[in-house]
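User: I would dearly like some help making sense of a protein record. I have put the entry right below:
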Amino acid sequence: MKKAHNFSAPCTSEPVELCRLALVALPYGEGPQKVMPLGLQNISAYVRKNSEHTTCKIFDYSDLYTSDIDELADLINWAPHFIGISIYSSHVQAAITWGKTIKNALPGTFIFCGGPHISLAAEDFLRASNRTFELAIRGEGEHSTAKLIDVFNNTHTQFPRKTKSKKHIYKNHFNRIPNAVWLTTSGKLKESYIEKIQLPTADWENPLLEYSSERLQKLYFTDRKDSKQRKAIALTSSRGCPLACSFCAIVAADKEGPKWRAIEATTLVSWIAEAYTHYSFEHIYMMDANFFVRKDRVLEFSEKLYNLFNGRVTWSSSSTVGYLLKLQSELPKLVSQGLRLVEMGIESGSQSQLDYMNKRVTVQNNIDAVRALQNNKIDVGLDFIMFYHDQQKREIIENLVFLVKSGLTEHESLDHYFNIMMLYPGTPVRKNLERKTGTKLDLTQLPNSREFIENHEVYNIYTAYIDNFAIPLLNQLEQAIESNIEKIGTHTSLTETAYHSLLNIHLKHMPFKVLWWLCHNTDKTTEINREPFFINYVATINKAIADDKPVNAPKLKILETPTTGSGGRRGELIGRSL
């Protein structure tokens, strides 16, 4: 693909004004999440390399609530010429709200958008935002953003600084920006030409050098094997996924060209080596949707990383079950070379549910994959969808049985008990639902999956579980567990340590016990809070946090990357903490 042309300013006595580009990651609309703006880092790195006279900064607000608009002061004070905002289907309304706030504060700034949701629903978003966003870019945004900046640089050198209608000048050149979509003043949709929506790997730049940008969150990894907390960095080394899970937003948004492509292991390690000359870190989060796709690449990366740092830098990654099992015999070597955590796309413990999701694995495959990680003392980041709208009660029970068989009933996070399948635009499950109901779902917000649960028993179970247990009690339950962990870290008495350790096991089993009871007492789901075991659990929670005092013990908590297919905990339940 032909790279973006670099426009040079003519020789004048007037100094060249740098184009200021702000790339913004907004709150996800599902509560604070510690997720790096990986796509924006890729765009920033590409623009720095391919566009002259440009200053680029990343402003990461993803760890905030939608209501935290006052945090925009640093962006507004910088007064950029361009603001590019990445849009996800989960935060369309947040993006519109924040976009309008930015536009009111910076009326002369050009605001454009891209991201997964734009690739699926650019026209609907532009109309819903009421022209807050003047341009939308489909597909991967590096090349198109660089071309947009080049248009600015070129017109800036051709027209006087006091030109009042620069935005009109830019709009006359929108057709020069590949994969661009915009609305005319009459409301007509206009599109430019399509040019390789997927950027070739040879044109990818090192995103790790973008940590010097504004408001990037600090990452840490708690290494249980070495009993230390490690300062971390995060990046993606591949894009897309070779699988076609029916619920996955990545597959839907990345439908053009090859499904999966990646930089070679040598290039990846060279990126990390280059970053190490600028920053101090001891752990690398490989945030790829599916890092384990090529066995030879994984093994080469692990060995070269180990040799480069002599084992001082550890790493974590992601995988689906089939690819993990192909590397099962190599796991001991990978652990010795620094592998510490694998985020596993398990998704279900029910075979019929796995088939519905087009996972192409068996329940036994899932058990074997989890056990392989556990046997090698590799932490498991669990992606799991407990509920979905076409579900039968039997499948919920099968999910719970799977958690027992795979040894996950005491997993650190409790999210997997509450996740419900999200209906992302463009996915087969959403299209099937729309055909079945004869309606077109609104593209400006993710639908509440609860409303589409067909089975009466499943609906009652889910409703009772969320409304009578999760929303009123989950915060306190997690607080009690966290309090016990802190007490275990500070007690010198073996008796007290043993007591709080056993108490945590008891508390961690509570979501399982409640859901199991609901599945076997569907005629009494509204009576769960009157059951003796439930009352005893509530009393235990209250007692655990009654004398809770802050302590300085380190919290053994591993950052787990969020699943791309489930919501639930980050959807319905976020309302409990707002």
